[in-house]
Every structure is written in C-alpha cells, then in structure tokens.
C-alpha cells in the first residue's frame, strides 16, 4: 500500500513558498525506479534526474557523453516511482547550447516522453536565449551556475569556481538574469560560501547548493555519493550517510560463499 495517500505534490510553487518561509529544500539525484521510490517515500522535496547518470550509471568520465534519449529513459523510470517529489530533468550536453530552437524541441521531448515536471540546464548569459524560449512553452526551468560540469573541458578542472572578484560578479549578474528570464530556482555548485549566501539573498527564487555552504535555500547531493556506493569520491562538500560499498561487498561475498559451499539454497528455500 502506498504511504502517500492524499499527499500533496511538491511543485515549483511549493519550493518558492519554502524559500519565503525559510524552510530548507532537500534534493537528491535519482536515476531508476527502485531507488527513486525509496527517496520519494522518505519525503524528499526534489529529485534531480542528473546527467551525473553519465558517471554513476554508465561509467563515463564526464557528463558529456549521455544522450537526450538516455536522459529520457532515466527520467521516465524515476517519474513512474514518484508520488510526491518535484522531478527535475537535466538537459544533456549538446541539447540546448548555441541553438534556442533545438533547446526548445529537446525540452519538449523531455517533458512529453518522460513526464518530468521541469528541466535544468547549465550556464548564465550564454544560454539565456534558450532559457527564454523554453519558458515560452510553459516548461519550468531550473538554472545551474558555478562549477558547470558540462564545461569541464573549458575549465580543465573541477576546482571551486568564482573565487576571483570578476567571476563572482559575473555569477551574481547571471543569477539575476536567470531570475528575470523566469527560472524557478538555481543550483550553485562548488563556489565560496559567502558568495552563495549573497546570491541567495539577492534573488527571490530558491538557490540550491552543492558545495556552496549553508547560506542557501536547500542542498543537493548525488545519491550514490551520499550512500557511499561510490567509494573513491570524497570531496569536502560530501557527507556520507552510509558506507554501502562495504555493506554490499560483504553481502556479495557471503552469497558467493553460500552458493559455492552448497549452503544456499537450504531446505526452507526450496519447493
């Protein structure tokens, strides 16, 4: 039986109200039905179907290789599991940059084929035309500033962004541009805490941080990272709530031993 009887869905309006009321917004990534079902049942506010699926689900080194079709597949799986959370879907690299017409058709495909509730894209002034065009179709857009992983080859590093005054100023301006264009929220990744807090104060829309300190309106983590499934990833901003890597490894070892020794299945486990 569903634990969600008569549960109110989280909408873009809900998270706006949360910011106004000073209630922090919780967000995690999700890529598949089984995991998303557990995350949603726990009561998360937002599930991000991140292009980080390229790394944690497909094993790519960067987020660049994942395709629009693959993002739609992951998003559809998540949407089927969710009864409460707002589902935001990342637009993959190459599906919106430099061509606002293509951006709109990509966004429409995501919404129609996955059933997601909103899209997220990376960048500020350089993607503002795409943002505006997607919004004209009534599709909610979440922005993403700071460290933008789809631009990894431009930066050449995953280091903290906007430490210099000029870049910090540009980030503040970009946040205001995204707000003015009509974005309902912005993710800020790996930027100094003071700057992130300043951005959160200077705009009325919710600011969700990852490695952006505690002065923002909410937090997001990659679910495989916070569960400790990804055991080699240990950035400073990550709090590991579990060490599932060790736990799962132990279970697999025991299963293999039980099969090899003939202990599994025992008499109770047979027909």
Q: Overall 3D geometry? A: globular
How are helices and strands ordered from N to C?
Answer: HEHEHHEHEHEHHEHEEHH
Rg of Cα set: 20 Å
CATH architecture of the largest domain: Alpha-Beta Barrel
Task: Assign the CATH class of the largest domain.
Answer: Alpha Beta
Strand content: 5-15%
Number of strands: 8
At the third CATH level, what is the topology name of the largest domain? TIM Barrel
Overall mean pLDDT = 96
Biggest sheet: strands, sense, closure? 8 strands, parallel, barrel
Share of helix among residues?
40-55%
Low-confidence stretches: none
Number of helices: 11
- Which class best fits the helix and strand makeup? alpha/beta
Q: Going by CATH, what is the homologous superfamily of the largest domain?
A: Phosphoenolpyruvate-binding domains
Strand order of the largest sheet: 1-2-3-4-5-6-7-8
How many angstroms does the end-to-end distance come to? 28 Å
């Amino acid at each position: 039986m569903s634990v969600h009887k008569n549960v109110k869905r989280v909408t873009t309006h809900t998270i706006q109200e949360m910011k106004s009321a000073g209630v922090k917004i919780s967000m995690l990534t999700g890529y598949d039905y089984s995991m998303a079902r557990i995350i949603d049942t726990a009561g998360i506010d937002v599930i991000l179907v991140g292009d980080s699926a390229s790394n944690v689900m497909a094993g790519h080194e960067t987020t660049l290789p994942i395709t629009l079709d693959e993002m739609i597949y992951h998003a559809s799986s998540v949407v089927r599991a969710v009864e409460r959370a707002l589902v935001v879907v990342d637009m993959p690299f190459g599906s919106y940059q430099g061509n606002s017409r293509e951006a709109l058709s990509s966004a429409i495909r995501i919404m129609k084929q996955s059933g997601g509730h909103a899209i997220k894209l990376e960048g500020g002034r350089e993607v503002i035309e795409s943002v505006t065009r997607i919004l004209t179709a009534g599709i909610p857009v979440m922005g993403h500033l700071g460290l933008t992983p789809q631009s990894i080859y431009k930066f050449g590093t995953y280091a903290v962004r906007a430490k210099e005054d000029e870049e910090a100023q540009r980030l503040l301006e970009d946040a205001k541009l995204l707000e003015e264009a009509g974005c309902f929220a912005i993710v800020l990744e790996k930027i100094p805490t003071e700057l992130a807090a300043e951005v959160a104060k200077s705009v009325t829309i919710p600011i969700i941080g990852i490695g952006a300190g505690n002065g923002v309106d909410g937090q997001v983590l990659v679910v495989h990272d916070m569960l400790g499934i990804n055991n080699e990833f240990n950035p400073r901003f990550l709090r590991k709530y579990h060490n599932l890597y060790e736990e799962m490894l132990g279970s697999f070892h025991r299963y293999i031993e039980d099969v090899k020794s003939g202990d599994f299945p025992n008499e109770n486990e047979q027909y």
